[in-house]
């Protein structure tokens, strides 16, 4: 329950966390959202978030083992399974985008920008349920790579690094319910709703113009650049004591900036190599 409130924010004291949040309340809830228990979930993340590191290490080892096992084996097609998998993630991401988007747009349109990155989500509302679902979905998304290696597709560094780091950072952020996560979660749900829809159709042989895959990569890269920008702004607000309190620790902020910066560099490099460099090669030919 809240122990303090003013017009801009309230403070919720959980079992292992104190959350400064914007008190937005949803007009209606989905049946699954009724089961949300913030005390139980935040206590679980506080005690178990480091398990994400173990899961990440196990993931990398598993991928390498499967790659070795597939060396002398024909690639699996898995067309139907791949379609269902991508379609399921697309639907999940779309619902997450819509449900978290309700709170996101309320805050963005009705509150100062600084509030949206320093005052967190209401821990008792559906947006918190979907933030938790977002963090847990990063474990499920590791199976993207399983499909790649079983089909003997190349797993580039960006792919597995992205999965590993997002998993660990999401679980770490869930411990303190970082305010900027409001932006990151909504952006990720939005991009993934498009990306997994694209993958689902592509998995059954539907071909799109190359511009579509370029747009997906541009959206991913833009997401990373926004993450870097928000991290810098939060640091400025905190270091200058402009926003006190601000729901993001310096430790998490440092991790956030480092991750998004590395992602931005890697995605821009991927875009240049896969789209711009190829155009130059074709011109030379």
UniProtKB/TrEMBL annotation:
Predominant location: membrane
Transmembrane segments: 44-61, 82-101, 127-150, 157-174, 180-199, 211-237, 257-276
Name of the featured protein: Elongation of very long chain fatty acids protein
Organism taxonomic ancestry: Eukaryota, Metazoa, Ecdysozoa, Nematoda, Chromadorea
Gene Ontology, cellular component aspect: endoplasmic reticulum membrane
Keyword Transcription regulation: no
EC number: 2.3.1.199
InterPro entries, A to Z: ELO_CS, ELO_fam
Pathway membership: Lipid metabolism; fatty acid biosynthesis
Organism: Parastrongyloides trichosuri (Possum-specific nematode worm)
Molecular function, one GO term: fatty acid elongase activity
One Pfam family from the record: ELO
Keyword annotations of the record: Fatty acid biosynthesis, Fatty acid metabolism, Lipid biosynthesis, Lipid metabolism, Membrane, Transferase, Transmembrane, Transmembrane helix
Topology of this chain in the membrane: Multi-pass membrane protein
Reactions it catalyzes: a very-long-chain acyl-CoA + malonyl-CoA + H(+) = a very-long-chain 3-oxoacyl-CoA + CO2 + CoA
Similarity-based family: Belongs to the ELO family.
Location(s), subcellular: Membrane
Record GO biological process: fatty acid elongation, monounsaturated fatty acid; fatty acid elongation, polyunsaturated fatty acid; fatty acid elongation, saturated fatty acid; sphingolipid biosynthetic process; very long-chain fatty acid biosynthetic process
């Amino acid at each position: 329950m809240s122990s303090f409130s003013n017009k801009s924010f309230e403070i919720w004291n959980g079992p292992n966390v104190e959350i400064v949040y914007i008190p937005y309340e949803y007009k209606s809830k989905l049946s699954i959202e009724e089961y949300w228990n913030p005390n139980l979930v935040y206590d679980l993340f506080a005690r178990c978030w480091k398990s994400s590191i173990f899961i990440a290490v196990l993931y990398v080892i598993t991928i390498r083992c499967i790659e070795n096992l597939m060396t002398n084996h024909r690639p699996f097609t898995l067309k139907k399974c791949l379609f269902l998998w991508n379609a399921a993630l697309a639907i999940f991401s779309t619902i997450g985008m819509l449900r978290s988007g309700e709170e996101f747009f309320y805050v963005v349109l009705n509150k100062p920008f600084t509030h949206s990155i320093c005052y967190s989500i209401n821990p008792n509302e559906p947006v918190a349920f979907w933030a938790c679902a977002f963090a847990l979905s990063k474990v499920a998304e590791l199976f993207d790579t399983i499909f790649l290696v079983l089909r003997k597709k190349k797993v580039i560094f960006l792919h597995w690094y992205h999965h590993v780091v997002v998993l660990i950072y999401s679980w770490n952020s869930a411990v303190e319910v970082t305010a900027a996560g409001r932006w990151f979660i909504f952006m990720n749900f939005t991009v993934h709703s498009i990306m997994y829809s694209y993958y689902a159709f592509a998995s059954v042989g539907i071909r799109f113009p190359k511009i579509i895959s370029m747009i997906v990569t541009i959206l991913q890269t833009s997401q990373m650049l926004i993450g870097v920008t928000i991290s810098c702004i939060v640091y400025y607000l905190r270091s200058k004591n402009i926003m006190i309190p601000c729901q993001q620790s310096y430790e998490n902020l440092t991790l956030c900036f480092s991750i998004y910066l590395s992602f931005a560099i890697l995605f821009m490099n991927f875009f240049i190599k896969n789209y711009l460099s190829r155009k130059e090669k074709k011109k030379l030919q």
